[in-house]
């Protein structure tokens, strides 16, 4: 059952490894699911 979500926006300033390091914090907030944004490479130009 989904209790609460927190959408992750992964980028060079907040990576998948940062997410892992913050799992306890998300749990304290009551987050049960962490959907992430689509992983794509941005091309300028």
Question: Can you describe what's shown?
Answer:
- This protein has 45 residues and is mostly helical.
- It has one domain (1-37).
- Helix content is 27%, strand content 0%.
- The protein contains two helices and no strands.
- The protein is elongated, with a radius of gyration of 13 Å.
- 0% of the residues are buried.
- The mean pLDDT is 81.
Topology record:
Elements: H1 16-21, H2 23-28
What brief labels describe this structure?
elongated; 45 residues; single chain; (1,4)-alpha-D-glucan 1-alpha-D-glucosylmutase activity; 2 helices; mainly alpha
Count of alpha/pi helices = 2
Overall geometry comes to elongated
Tally of discrete structural domains:
1
Strand content: under 5%
Secondary structure category: mainly alpha
- Helical fraction equals 25-40%
DSSP summary, beta strand count: 0
N-to-C CA distance: 43 Å
Sheet with the most strands, sense and barrel status: none
**Can you give the mean pLDDT?**
81
Radius of gyration: 13 Å
Low-confidence stretches: none
Give the topology string: H per helix, E per strand: HH
EC number: 5.4.99.15
InterPro entries: GH
Keywords: Isomerase
Protein name: Malto-oligosyltrehalose synthase
In a nutshell, what does this entry contain?
By secondary structure, the protein is an all-alpha fold. Helices cover 27% and strands 0% of the residues. Keywords: Isomerase.
